[in-house]
Amino acid sequence: MPRFPAGFELAEALTSAARQLHGTGSPHDAMNAAVQLAVRLLPEAEHAAISEIQRGRLRTLAWTDEVVRFDADSRNGSREPIPDRDRLWTTPVVRTDDSEADGGADALSGLGLRSALSLRLRADRRRLTVLTVYARKPQAFDDEATRIGRLFTAHVSLALDSATVREQLTEAMRTRDLIGQATGILMERLNIDAAGAFDSLVKASQRENVKLRDLARRIVDANSGASGRGVGER
Prior knowledge:
- The chain is of the alpha+beta class.
- 44% of the residues lie in helices and 16% in strands.
- Strands 2-1-5-4-3 form a 5-stranded antiparallel beta sheet.
- The longest helix has 48 residues, at 143-190.
- It is elongated, with a radius of gyration of 24 Å.
- The protein starts with 9 loop residues before the first helix and ends in an 11-residue tail after the last helix.
- Residues 159-220 form the ANTAR domain.
């Protein structure tokens, strides 16, 4: 993906990036767009990744290249892709000027990455989400890159929040429709009214320790000829 053209005003570049981020359909799509845009937007950035840290475990959610894809089960799982990541719980930015400055002990130097700029996207008591850009040369990210990075991550955070809300609303509507279909099936099968059918569905969900949505899907699938048994078949 080419960088924004030379001389392209920062405000225009950020507006264009925000438009692309908000045009995505899901949080996953927004994160994939964000890492690609980060390489285009931040000066000297060559690779980018979004990682999530939860209960001390790190996994990469989006990446531009395999070299910056880290996961507990991957070949890079034993390495530390986010320098001083614990600091990001309390500060929004962590910058590494040269991973070889300590004699090459830093894990990034083993990947040929000398510079890194980590920017916090989200943080709560249990989970930290971070966007990190990397470069092969030392001291790649200066104060200007950090400023642009912070402005960009503000847009990314807003886009992620919007995409998450849209996804939750869509899922809620699907769940409502699914439960409505299951209730209608039980009304016809058991010859009861809507309240009785819904109550039967809730009780079966509790009895079987199955989420209401999943039980409703089972009933709808069974009614349409899929394998499985509905409440009324017990």
